[in-house]
Amino acid sequence: MTDGFPLSNLKLAHARKLLVVAPHPDDETLGCGGLISLLAQNGRVFYIVFVTDGSASHRNSSAWPAARLATQREREANDALACLGIENAPRRFLRLPDANMPAPGDPAWESAVAAVSRIMQRFAPDLVLLPWRRDPHCDHRASWLLSQQALRHAPVHPDTLEYAIWLDELGEVEDHPKPGEVELVQLNVGSALASKRAAIAAHVSQTTDLIADDPAGFRLTPQTIARLTQSTEVFLRPINESH
Question: Could you tell me the pTM of the whole model?
Answer without folding.
Answer: 0.95
